Amino acid sequence: MHKMIRQMAQLTVQTPLLAAAPATSAAKLLAMPPVITQNVDCCGVHTATSGGLCTKWNKHNYGPRKWLEYNKTVHPPQAVGEEPRKAYVCHMRSNIKYSPDKMWYIAAFVRGMSVDEALKQLNFVLKKGATDVKETILEAQQMAVERHNVEYKSNLWIAESFVGKGRVFKGLRRHARGRFGRVEYKHCHYFLRLEEGEPPQHYYLPEPQTPQQQLEHWLEQMRSRKIINSL
Which ranges form a coiled coil (predicted)? Predict the structure, then answer.
């Protein structure tokens, strides 16, 4: 009921002026339907929880553009005997209605996995952003086969997976005794790069050491100690 009253309050009915019109056109003006225009809020406060990225609020924001330009890069011919260059594809999904802080955990989780393994693991991630990440990976996999001449769609691994901050809409939340609180509707951009081949054994460098290597490194540090101001 309150939502209906708020919408009706934003509508204003503009009736044409009849005083300045001649008598012959007065009947025509009376027959015309009233012109209904909706007031546009100029305070910059967005109070709706859905439909925030419509034309009214997102006229000049097209999201990141540079990431997809890497797909148009033309590499020079390779020399004879040189190792073949691995094919890659960059893909993204912009303005996801999800917090970038929460999406970071999912993006870092699939980083360095093969495509099949990442899709398998995302089926068990009970987070809202896992659905968007999975759909983005499937779209990039299809692009790699259809546009970038990748022979086997399962021969891909996730080389890069990270998140960027998107639009943030600020709104008000009413509380008791006439107070109000501030609420932010956050959006994020998800970026992905698939590369052809097998994933590396250790994605993050330096490679993890075995217990024996850690012991030798510790002994070397202990034996190289020096007593300051000694003989």
Answer: none
